[in-house]
Structures are given as C-alpha cells and as structure tokens.
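2024-03-11 09:14:02 INFO queue: dequeued item General secretion pathway protein GspM, len=188
2024-03-11 09:14:02 INFO validating residues
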Amino acid sequence: MSTPSAPHTAPPVWRTRWDAMAPRERRLVLAAALLVAAALAWWLLLAPALRTLREAPARHAALDAQLERMQALAAEARLLQADASTRPSQAEAQRALQSAAAALGSGARVSLMGERATVGLQGVPAAAIPPWLAQVRGNARSVPVEAHLTRSSAKPQAQPAASAAPQKPTPAGEARWDGAIVFALPPR
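2024-03-11 09:14:37 INFO prediction written
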C-alpha cells in the first residue's frame, strides 16, 4: 500500500524570479517598490491633507466674514420688524422717496400710483444707486419690488447750478444706468 503524499505545489512565478535575482537586484527592486509606495502615500494621503491645512485659514476667514454679514442682516431684519409699528404713513414715505430721488439729481423722476412708486432713472451713476437704495430703505421704509435697469449709452449731463443736492463729479468711464425701480409703499 502506498501512503498518501503531501501535494507538491510549485512556487509562484514571482518567487522563483526573486530567488533568481542577485542581492543587488533585490535591493534595487525593493528600493523602487518603496519609492512607488511613498509616492502613492504622498499623492493619496498626505498631499490632500496638507492642501486642506493650507487652505483652512482663508476658508475660515471667508466663512467668518459670511457669518458676520448674515448676523448683520439678521440684526437689521429684527430692527425692521421692531420698527413696523413706527412705519411711516404712505404720505411720509412718498415725501422721503421724493427727497431721496432728488439726491440723484435730474436723472431720477418719481411717479406715484396708489401703493406703488416708480422711480425712473436716466444716466444715473452706478455708484450712486446702492447708497440711494439704502437711504430709501431707511427713510421711506420701502424696498424695491421690481427693477429694470440697462447700462446707459448717454453721455453724463452737466448738473444745474441750482441743484438741491450737489453731486460729486463722476469719472468719464464710470457706468451709468437707465431704467425704472418700483417700490411698495406702506398702505394708507
């Protein structure tokens, strides 16, 4: 009777090639494998983490600025809600809107229709519009509900000497706007 013998397995191909290599070749293959492993570790693990670490202060500052802006808007909204009881009458809002429009000069005309006021703009400097809107929001307690603005192709007009609100001269290349902004006035 024959005894069962252990199955004979051939060594893997890579093992036979490794055994056939000279010691110097083995060291070179190991060094190349370590270099590839180190490069993969750098590209997949360390580089993204270091990039995130480098970008973190700038992103943190941007998020802090955004949070500060949102908190300021929330505080302004709370003030506006608290001031709802002291909201000006429609006549007071109309007067405040007309006086604010006068600050834009001859390029702004106000037309009133019920609880809406339309301010037509012609050749008004772009830089003058944001502070004017803030003034309207603060004094007349009105916000725009609709706006149609296009860049003006007209040349700047000279201001009359008797203008109620003197304006700063605007640079020749500054953008100017034509169009209309519609405001909702408080109900009567």
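2024-03-11 09:14:37 INFO annotate: The longest helix spans residues 23-82.
2024-03-11 09:14:38 INFO item closed
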